[in-house]
Design a protein that fits this description.
Strand order of the largest sheet: 1-2
Structural class: mainly alpha
Oligomer: single chain
Length: 462
């Protein structure tokens, strides 16, 4: 027995000591290398660690700090746009009240729900990457990418509709609607003998000028130049216009006329270019061509008074009635002056350019009972012909396309990042020890969603 009682066998085997970081590699008690808990782990040779970092924890903290600084610059960018929105809305509230009616609230609400859901799937993707669940990570990234695609598809529908209707920024907002010319009939073109081409239209046509006039000048000078009280004078048969050449009139409209001008006979201001700075010189020439079509109103012959009767003749020859009893001499004089002024003063009230309100039916019509809907005012064919359109209405679509367009560019960039993350997830690149890229991509996508949360109510709801 003593032969077998060697020192080595008598001493019980020492327990195996694991390194301090063995628990980090245990599937149950695994630490996150990208978090602060990895500071005690010796990961100098860990995959994905850059040479200028001491640990994955330091690398993760540095990357996240850089991402937050970048997101702060994005907030400064959109914060400036929100300040511009506040100033513009404060100075022109009527422009926002008019322009918001052309937006589809349901499409904007749908995009809001889509981005909120995509933000949730992106947060789930970060969680699955930290836990090393590859398949759910791939599905969540794919769902987030799909949400971004749905958002951009809805924006494409909105943009295409507005561009088709001329609801754009700048000068294009006031352009008249484009009408396609009718196709030639079979009688006009037979065989090789085609009908001669129509003569080219004049360089500056009154037809085009009429559309520009209705969009800019009508609010002050009326439909046919008859003028509106307190806004603009009657220019039909104007000697000043007749004495000026077309180029002189264009120069006059470009400069306008101030109230303190000695040649101003109304005391009203005519703003340069009629208050529409987007009008070009050729547009003014079209307007001048339309002004040349105005005709002076025909004078109305005074009606002959009826033959006076015998009693009336006697009353005409009689002396004016005496002032009432008790009236002073000053009151009698004022009464006679007011009567004389009322007989000699003639008032001219020009016709308003605003159309009359629609005449509603009497009682309850059978059509209303059947459909439960009875529109009282039919919408206008085009916004350039809308008499209720305020001045500078294009400013609303300036801020609309600027903010939503810049946000759409950020959505496209986010989709590229998520697509790149999806490819890496499919290849098994991310796990508990390497999920920094997924986390930073999620931060960027959350910022994009947050900006839209502010844009939707500012543009679509209020």
């Amino acid at each position: 027995m003593t032969a077998f009682m060697t020192p080595s066998s008598a001493t019980p085997p020492e327990p195996e000591h694991r390194p301090a970081d063995s628990l980090s590699r245990c599937p149950v008690h695994r630490h996150q290398y990208d978090g602060a808990a990895a500071a005690t782990v010796d990961d100098a040779h860990a995959p994905g660690l850059a040479h200028h970092f001491e640990s994955l924890g330091q690398q993760f903290s540095s990357a996240k700090l850089g991402m937050w600084i970048f997101l702060a610059t994005e907030l400064l960018l959109f914060g400036g746009l929100f300040c511009y929105y506040a100033v513009l809305r404060g100075n022109h509230p009527e422009v926002f009240a008019y322009g918001s009616q052309f937006l589809d609230t349901w499409l904007g609400a749908t995009n809001t729900v889509v981005l909120i859901v995509s933000s949730m799937t992106m947060a789930m993707a970060v969680s699955f990457a930290q836990r090393g669940q590859r398949r759910p990570l791939v599905w969540c990234l794919a769902a987030t990418l799909l949400g971004g695609g749905v958002f951009m598809g809805i924006k494409y529908v909105e943009y295409s509709h507005k561009i088709h209707d001329g609801l754009v920024w700048g000068r294009g907002f006031y352009a008249p609607p484009h009408v396609e010319p009718p196709a030639p009939s079979a009688n006009e073109v037979e065989g090789d003998q085609a009908a001669p081409p129509p003569p080219p239209p004049p360089q500056f046509s009154a037809k085009t000028g009429e559309s520009l006039w209705m969009a800019t000048c009508r609010s002050c000078h009326g439909v046919a130049g008859e003028g509106i009280v307190g806004q603009g004078k009657d220019i039909r048969g104007s000697e000043f216009i007749a004495s000026q050449s077309d180029e002189e009139l264009v120069k006059f409209i470009k400069g306008g006329r101030m109230p303190f001008d000695k040649l101003n006979t109304t005391g009203l201001q005519m703003p340069p270019r009629g208050g529409n700075p987007t009008l070009k010189d050729d547009d003014l020439r079209h307007i001048v061509a339309y002004i040349r079509t105005f005709k002076a109103p025909e004078p109305v012959a005074p009606s002959e008074p009826d033959a006076p009767t015998e009693g009336a003749a006697e009353g005409a020859e009689a002396e004016p009635s005496a002032p009432p009893a008790g009236a002073t001499a000053g009151e009698a004089t004022a009464s006679g002056a007011a009567s004389s002024s009322a007989q000699s003063t003639e008032f001219y009230i020009p016709k308003s350019s605003i159309p009359n309100a629609a005449q509603g039916p009497r009682g309850i019509s059978p059509r209303f009972r059947a459909q439960r809907v009875q529109p009282l005012i039919q919408p206008v064919a085009h916004h350039t012909e809308d008499p209720t359109r305020p001045a500078n209405a294009h400013l609303y679509f300036n801020i609309y396309f600027l903010t939503t367009g810049l946000h759409g560019i950020h959505v496209l960039v986010g989709m590229l990042v998520i697509g790149w993350l999806l490819i890496g997830a499919v290849r098994g690149r991310y796990g508990p020890h390497r999920f920094t890229q997924v986390d930073l991509g999620g931060l960027y996508w959350h910022l994009v969603d947050l900006i839209w949360i502010f844009l939707f109510p500012l543009l679509y709801l209020i």
